[in-house]
Amino acid sequence: MMAQSIPHRDRRTRALAYLELTKPRLTLLVMFAGLTGYYVASVGAVDVIGLVHTLVGIGLASAGAMALNQYLEREYDARMLRTAHRPLPEARLLPGEALAFGTLLALSSVMYLTTWVNWLTGALVAATMVIYLFLYTPLKRISPWNTVVGAIPGALPIVSGWVGARNSLDTGALILFAILYFWQFPHFLSIAWLYREDYRRAGYKMFPGMPNGAVLTNGHILVASLCLLVVSLLPTPAGLTGNLYLGIALLVGGGFLSCGVLLVWRQTAASARRLMIASFIYPVLLWSFMIVDKL
Description:
The protein is about 75% helix and about 0% strand. It has about 300 residues and is an all-alpha fold. The chain folds into two domains: about 160 residues, UbiA prenyltransferase (Tetracycline Repressor, domain 2), CATH 1.10.357; about 130 residues, Up-down Bundle (Four Helix Bundle (Hemerythrin (Met), subunit A)). The mean pLDDT is about 95.
């Protein structure tokens, strides 16, 4: 049962609770995706002011979406060991405070991007939040196929960065989207494998926690990892990056695929944890070399 009132807290404690609502590390990863998209899309010298405006807007959107997601899932978070210590289950903030905070950030992000970047980026970020909060979030309690939908808003921040630079959607944006889309399947399924009892306790439907879900879990991890390896090589023939990136993409993609194969083969917590850790390292390496080897 969640607490209904909040004991007196000092300002620093409350400020930290609000910060925690934004999931700072994940928001920084989202902003790095946006930076990569903007940088790779830039023709000639990068417009630093435009880049800063784009990243501020994407960061506000990510922080707002994280806060609103925790508001919507506060009762379910309280049932899970891995999320029971978030600000709302622990009653460090009231639900209304989280709702107001998240709404303010989300609306500000759209207005900021529309005003200082371009209307297409603002619209894309708005669509990202709508899909994440109102399609993917409730779908997690309805169908184990929720990741197919959830991977869409998860892959759009890098496209928002691209659109921030070019104010258009084209083949390059689709390639970057596809890379991030396929990456999310091994990422989320490795987490769902590790915490399948937690997800089941909260009523979330994920393949690893479903009866006879192993086949679908393994299939999604292997197919998505193979597709990821293939699409991650496309930036070079598309003229976005050079051969250094191509070699790195082949190397880290092969390593990431091997982690997925290992989980499918061994079905152990250690192999699932290895894949989860690799899934955090993989995009950072890939995006870094996209930036370094941009043509």
